[in-house]
Amino acid sequence: MTQVFVALDLEATGMDPSRDEVIEIGAVKFRGGKIIDYFQTMVRPRSVLSFGIQTLTGLTNKDLNEAPRFAAVAPKLRDFVKQAPIVGQSVGMDLEMLAAGGLGLPNRQYDTFEMATMLLPELRTYDLGTIAATLGVPPSHKHRAVADAETAMHVFNRLYDRIEALDDATLDRLAELTRISQSSLTHLFSAVVRERRGEVDSYGGNSIGAALLAKLGGEREATPEAAFLVTRARPARLEPTGVEPEISPGTLRAAMGAEGPFANALIGFEERPQQLDMMLAVANNLNRGGRTLIEAGTGTGKSLGYLLPAALHAVEHGDPVVVSTATIALQDQLIKKDIPALRAAAADAARLDPSSPIAKLENLQASVLKGRSNYLCLRRWFLAQREAVSSETQAQLYAKVTAWLQTTETGDRAELRLSQDEGSLWGRLAEEEGACVPAQCVFHRRNQCFLFRARAEAEASHIVVVNHSLLLSDLLRNGSVLPSYRHLVVDEAQHLEAEATTQAGFSVSRPQAVDLLKRIIRDEAQLGTVGALGMTFRTLTSVSGNQGRAAAADLQMHLQAARNASADALSGIERMFVTLGEFVERYDSLATGYERRVRVTGALRSDPAWSQVEIEWDGAAQPLGTLVELLRQFSDVVETFDDEVLPTRLEILTELETLESDSVELRRRLFQLLSQASDDMICWLSRHQTTGETSVHAVPLHVADLLRDELYRRCESITLTSATLTTDRTFDYIKDRLGLEDADELNVPSPFDYAASTLLAVMDDVPEPGQPGHQKALQRAVLEICRASEGRAMVLFTSHNALQTTYRALKADLERDGILVLGQRIDGSPRQLVERLLANPKTVIFGTNSFWEGVDIVGEALSLLVITRLPFSVPSDPVFAARSELFEEPFIDYAVPQAILRFKQGFGRLIRSADDRGACVVLDRRVVSRRYGESFVASLPDCRFIVGNADEVSSSVRDWLAVQNVTSAPRH
Ligand code: SF4
């Protein structure tokens, strides 16, 4: 690298250039790894620093009192930077901030964030610290300008090295794509190409598409850019071993004993009788077959509790076990932590006795399998590369995929960080059901196809990890993705009903319907008639000779008919969605939030205006039928061409067939939703508040029968587990919801000593939700108890509105006491909020949704959990409302148990290890004032329980947290 660069970082009073001011500037001038000069200065702002900024940067108002004003600093910085390109993390924002202060720097800029999203697609987050750690750059003191600028310099250099390692064709393609997307990185890619050509010009003029196609045609040796296209060996399928030994309880006891292999292999291992009980139950289920529900309290070691027996069964029998989870976090934990732990214990066992059952787990194979749309389809990718790039977003997406293809082994989009817009284009590159004909795909033949490689790996695996969504969609769509299996473990089983509801339901929005019609045929000013039919017509009529001329004559009339039908269908659909939108406005005029929902009940269908919807739907359905017929006729004509005459025949046919089946499906769905009321379906309309778009939805009223018929019946054994399955200490509710009335059950209590570690307090002087004075009293209560705990707290809300109101009311008061307040969707992502709490425990997080489950904060940083309101479902929610009608006492038999499961999940955030100590304060007095409230308390482990007013509870919390946890031993 011969060029001189300047790495820049600023600290400011906030993130808004129109309002906030620079308070510190750090810059480093460098060439390659050599630092030439530093620039560092504080800047005195006109406003005072907020508490949050002081906490984040470590700067105080006093530190800045003597500093120069921005106007005095700006010329010095300009002089330091001169013409050098400026690099930095999200450097565009820093330059905007400087410009707002009066210092415009027109220099070229390179954003390390943008570079990293392209060159390190595997990262979950792209903050500077994470990027630096991934690249092996030593950590710096964070959030001070010059240190961060120096880190950005090292990060830039390492990323630049990665660019230099790319081949010429990839670099050329990236330079072109980043030019189209108007990214300044295009200069960087071009500069590397030019610099390289000055030395060696051996790849000149190549394009990635040509190189790859040449490789496919076998015309040249493997080029570096085509390295991911090497033909791969297929792993051997898992075959039954033919032996039928049962998993012996003795094997499990010995493995988990104080002298067993797990004790040697796992750091911090402790014998847990509860975990062993769970293992024995899972083993029994696998040995005998059946259905078992297991609630495993926090700290049981639940995942190892089912993984060990599942792995023993699968390895001994050559019989795979599928493990389904609801969240990616748990999938990651299984694959990255628990399964390696099994292998480590197996290696230890093998040293002592190579013939022991545990030793055989050394060869344990495990894989994650996802739904088909997660994998890049190479056929579609290369087809897309032949076409012109039509938007900046498309160019950004293609640039990311081009760089990613150099390293990915999986083709799984989860490895890529895509913006929402880029993500919406992903579908065009992913495998689409019905559009893939493996027997005719070169990538499949060579075992290069990512989807089929993932499937082959799953077929070779003992443990196949999937999510509930794939598990259920595979069942409902003829089981074409998962390998055949007889044994299933469902973790996070409390989500199974909701996922089955989603998978068995469907929805249609106006943009979806319109997009489909436009994909079939549309007229465009510049391009003429396009869409599948227009393009097919052009392709066929460009074929020379008689066949092309005959096709033109045959299809000319059909093309005009298709244009007319499309226009009619389009206007019918547009009118229909306008009328449906009016229904939402009329029936749900008071709703707030992001989405309005109106259930389509008998009463709504008998509204005279509903017949207008049906008329408009009829007006669209008939021309849609005509389009389906025309798609078939075009297919028939394409069929008559030979591959030599029409090399893209197969691709055209696949496209036409996909559109035909999508159109048939659209008609079927809209007919079912609008004209064919069924007692077994819950239908509703929704209207998005910001986009104004209306959608129609339908889901089954019951899923228990569906689960019984489609899932349980096909499995010899199924184990369903979670930390929250029981309500009021029974499995009755979950059994009823999941159709598992005859299942065995096991409740494994948590090994933690909650009586010694946890104070459960109910504040009885906050009026019930909806009563006068509720919000004010709630605010006062939160303020007092967060002061009592000195932060270290998480406050759980059931709505974002309530969160925002409380946040606005309390932030200043708490921050005056030195307690930082962070709000979900206000101060960052859940992960960022948790990181800030861990870095500075004098913090309170206000959270909704995702904070009720899955957040795992061990230790003192989370000592207080506040549940502001019992988490009942919103009564107007269409699914909840429709299912409630099935109960004689819907509130007690449906709403309460559902809320208890959620309440238990929330409570479970507090105590995450045997050494944790904390207080859970419930601000909803219905827990003690209503009869059903007892069930909420009875569903929790035995804690120290008190009821009192705000002062009493705050003082109890203070006293409770002042005591060290002396009973850290698990309760057996
Ligand atoms: S086999 Fe199917 S999914 Fe795989 S590359 Fe070919 S068309 Fe795409």
Looking at the overall shape, the CATH architecture of the largest domain is 3-Layer(aba) Sandwich
Q: What would the principal axes of the Cα set say about the shape? A: globular
* CATH T-level topology of the largest domain: Rossmann fold
Number of strands: 25
Number of helices: 39
Average pLDDT rating: 89
Largest sheet: 7 strands, parallel
What is the topology, as strand order, of the major beta sheet?
8-9-7-10-17-6-18
Alpha carbon gap, first and last residue: 63 Å
CATH class of the largest domain: Alpha Beta
Estimated radius of gyration: 31 Å
Q: What percentage of the residues does DSSP assign to strands (E)?
A: 5-15%
Fold blueprint:
Blueprint: E1 5-12, E2 22-31, E3 34-42, H1 51-57, H2 61-64, H3 70-81, E4 86-88, H4 91-100, E5 109-111, H5 112-119, H6 128-134, H7 145-164, H8 168-180, H9 185-199, H10 208-216, H11 249-256, H12 261-265, H13 273-288, E6 290-296, H14 302-317, E7 321-325, H15 328-352, E8 366-368, H16 378-386, H17 392-404, H18 420-426, H19 442-445, H20 450-459, E9 463-467, H21 468-476, E10 487-490, H22 496-504, E11 506-509, H23 510-520, E12 522-524, E13 528-530, H24 531-541, H25 546-587, E14 595-599, H26 602-605, H27 608-639, H28 649-674, E15 681-688, E16 694-700, H29 704-711, E17 717-722, H30 732-738, E18 744-748, H31 754-757, E19 758-763, H32 774-789, E20 793-796, H33 800-816, E21 820-823, H34 830-839, E22 843-847, E23 864-867, H35 878-884, H36 890-907, E24 918-922, H37 926-929, H38 933-938, E25 944-948, H39 950-962
Parallel strand pairs: 1-4, 4-5, 6-17, 6-18, 7-9, 7-10, 8-9, 10-17, 19-24, 19-25, 20-22, 20-23, 21-22, 23-24
Antiparallel strand pairs: 1-2, 2-3, 11-16, 12-13, 14-15, 15-16
Helix pairs in contact: 5-7, 6-7, 8-9, 8-17, 11-13, 13-14, 14-15, 17-18, 21-22, 23-25, 23-28, 24-25, 25-27, 27-28, 32-33, 32-39
The structure holds iron/sulfur cluster.
The site of iron/sulfur cluster (SF4) has 12 residues, from helix 16, helix 19 and helix 20.
